[in-house]
Design goal:
Elements (H helix, E strand, L loop, with lengths): L1 H50 L4 H27 L3 H11 L2 H12 L4 H30 L3 H29 L2 H24 L15 H13 L2 H31 L5 H29 L5 H18 L6 H29 L5 H30 L1 H4 L1 H14 L3 H4 L6
Helix pairs in contact: 1-2, 1-5, 1-6, 1-7, 1-9, 1-10, 2-5, 2-8, 2-9, 2-13, 3-5, 3-7, 4-5, 4-7, 5-13, 6-7, 6-10, 6-12, 8-13, 9-10, 9-11, 9-12, 9-13, 9-15, 10-12, 11-12, 11-15
Length: 423
Amino acid sequence: MTTFDETDDAAAARTQRERSGRLKLYFGGQASWFISLGIQFVLFPYLAAEMLHETPARVGIAQMSLMAPAILFILLGGTIADHSDVRRILVRMHALSVLPPLMLFAVILSGHLTYGILIAYALAMGTLGAFAMPARDSALNRIAETNIQQAVTLAMGTQMGSQLLGMLFVTLAALTLSAVVNIPILLLFQMTMLAAGAVLTAKLDPLPPEHAPSGAGRFAQILDGIASAWEQPISFMVIVLNFAVGLFYVGSFMVVLPLSMRDVYNFNGTEFTSRFAMINIAFWGGTIASNIALLKVGHIVHRGRVMMGAVTAGFIILALMSLTLPFAVLCLLCFLWGVGAGTTMTMGRTIVQIAAKPSHRARVLALYQLGFSGGAPIGSLIMGFLVGWYGVHDAVLIPAGIMVLIILSLFFSPLWNYRADEA
C-alpha cells in the first residue's frame, strides 16, 4: 500500500513539474511578445505625434492602423488556431514579427521615415498579432489544464508586467540617451525579444487540434464560431461589453494621452517620450496591482458584477480627464484606470475561457478579442477627429457620457446575475 501511494505521489509530482515547465515556456514566449508591445506602445505614438508632428486626425489614423487588422483577420486567426498546431502558429508569428521593426530600424537610420512607412509598420504588426492572439489564448487551457481563473490571472499579469518592462526600457533609454540614439536601440531590443519568444515557444510540445478537422470552408467555420458565442448569452454579453470598452476607453487612451503630452503639457523630444512612458507605466502598473489582488482573493463567484464595477470606474476617470490636472494627478488617474482595466480583462477572459466549447474555444476567444481590438481602432479614429474639433478636454466627455448609458443597461443583462459556481 505504501509503495502504491509513493508511486502515485511521484507520478503526481512529475505531472506537476511537467505542467510547471510548460507554463514557464508559455509565459516566457508571452512575455517576449508583450515586452515588444510595451516598447511599441510608447515609441509608435512618439514617432507619429512628435517626430513627424502629425495632426490629431492623422495620429488617430496611425493608432487605428495598429489595431485595424484585427477586424479583418482575428476571426480567421481563431478558425486557423482551432484546426492547426497552435505552437507552430506562435513560432511563425514571432519569427515574422521581427521583420517590421527591422524595416523601421533601417528607415530611421537612413533618415527617411514617412507617415506611409509608419502606417505600413502598423498594419504588418497588427496583422501578425491578429493571428498570434487566438493561438496564444486557446493554448492556455491545454497547457494549464486546471485552475483556469488562476491561469488566466497569471497570464494577464505576465502580459501586463511584460508591457510595463518594455515601457520602463523606453523610459530608461529616453532619460539616458538622445532621441537619435535611443530609437534604433529600442527597435533592436524589440527585435531581440521577438526572436527570443520564437525560441522559447518552439521548446513547447506540439499542440495539435483537439478535434477532427471540419470539412467546412473557412467562412463557414467563422460563422460557426460566432453562432457558438451567440448560444452562450454570458459569453456574448462579455464580447459586446468588450467592444464598448475598446471603442470608448481604449480609443480615448490611444489618442487623447499622447496628444495631451504634446498639446496640453507641452512636452517634446525626450521629455515627451519619458513622460508618456510614465503614464503608461502608471496604467500598466495598475493592471498588475489588480491581478495581484485577484490572485490573493482567489475564486470569485460574481465575476460579472466585479467586471461591471471596474467598467464603471473607467468612465469616472475618463470624465475627470476633462479637467486641467497636474501631471502627477494624471499619473494617479492612469494607475486607477489600469486597476479597472486589469480587473475587466481578467474577469472577461476567464468567463469566456470557461464558457466556450473546447472545439470552438479559439474562435470564441478570437471573437472576444475582436470586441476589444475591433472597437479600439474605430475609437481611435473617432477620437482623433473629436479632439481636432473640440480639443482634448471636451472630447473625452463624449465617450464618458455614452459609457454611463451602457453601464446602466448592464443591470438588466446576464452579466449582473452570472455566478461562477465552479471551484
